[in-house]
Amino acid sequence: MFFNLSHFFQKIKSSITWKIFKDSLLSVLFLIFLNLLNFSFFSLFLFFLLMLWIYFSQPGERQNFRTSFWITNFLFVFFLANIETLTEIKLVVLIFYGILMFFILGLINLTFKEKFVVYNVLNLLILFLLFINVFLFHPFFEKFSFWQILFWNLEIFVVISLIFLEFWRNFGVGFLKKEKLWSYLIGLIALELSMIVVFLPLGFFNAAIFLTLIMALLRDIYLVYENGLLNYNFVFRQLTIFIVISAIISLLVNWRVY
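Now predict its structure.
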């Protein structure tokens, strides 16, 4: 019995899943280290070196998910560096970070059988995390200069465009000028919507859900269209889901007229 159990653990240690788990855990531990050092320049530099080591230690498939890898790390560092909250909340954020890193590294190492389902969920979670940062730290509510606000909006546009460019590539839509144009267009739509939604009394969490829903709707409609499967039933189903969830969000909001 002991021999079989020992053999079982030995098999786990030598597996790809164990390596993915170790790399994900190492990323979480170093993010904790960053937090303890208040995100000093030296700790950020060490974290960047560690991420470089983890990234380049992965197989060649890593190029297909490099945008998700680097944007995820940037968003979590930015969130934890700017949020002033309880330790319990930060613990939840760190667990969420570990799960996303496990997903990304698992996709890179071809661990998941349902690769496209996992990547679809991952893509939505990254968009949601992005919009959490957008609405929680939006410069419109602070005394920022015009150029700072412009740079902030440019960052949003670039990040969303890169996320969608990676999505089209992984789903085999292609990497032609048309896909680039659609990515830039969706990035521009997201930017304009964020500048409107930020003034609605939705709260940052509901606002992030709402904008993530819109991005998912645009993304899926274009993907199905490119595959020649777009029809009225699909559009009706997607719009129904969007309307129902939007209605629920609206009911949870305390609408006021100023």
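The chain has a mean pLDDT of 81.
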